[in-house]
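Hello Y.,

Per our agreement to keep a running log of every chain we model this quarter, I'm adding this entry. I've kept the format consistent with earlier entries: sequence first, then predicted structure.
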Amino acid sequence: MKKMHLVAGLALLGLALSACQQEAGTPSTTNTSATSTTAATGKEDPAVVEEVKAVLQKHDKALNDKNVDAVLATFSNDPRTVVLGTGEGERFVGEQTIREAYTEIFRDYDPGTLITNCDWKTGGVDSAGTTAWVAATCQAQDSLKSKKREYVLNVSGALRKEGDGWRFVMLHMSNATNATPPTEANAKSAAAK
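Predicted structure for the entry above:
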C-alpha cells in the first residue's frame, strides 16, 4: 500500500514546482555573480523552471502509461540516485532498485485514475540553473479495480541538470499520519499545554 502512494507522490511534484514561480517570497539560492539571472533579479529563470516542469510532465505521463523505461529516463544515472518512501525498507538506491520499485508500484493502481490537490507547495532553482528542488503536501485519490482511495502525501525532490537535460537525483514521498497538517491555531494550543 505504501509503495502505491509513492506513485501519486511522484505525480505531485509537477504541481509543486510550479510554485517556485507563483509563491511570493520563495527562497532561492543566490551567489554574487553578476551573470546569474537569479542573483541579479531574485527570481528563477522562467526557461529553467519550464525545463524542469517538462521533466515532471514526462514522469507523470510515464506513470499513467505504466512505462518503467520512460519513468527511469527522468532519473539520473548516478548510482547514488535515491527514491525514499515512508518507512524502513522503502529506500531504493540506483537504477535497478528504482526499476524494481516501480515495477511493483505499477501493480497497485489503475492508469489514469490519479487526482491531486496540493494545498501547500514550494520549490526553487539555484542561481547557476543546475539544481532544482520541490516540496508539497497534497490530497490525493486514485483507484484500483474501481475501488477508490484517498490519502495525504508529503513530497520532496531534487533534480540536477545533466548533459542531456534535467534528471531526478532524489525523491521522497511519505504518507501523512493525519488527514490534514496542523493549523497554526492548533499548534499554538498544543504548545500552551
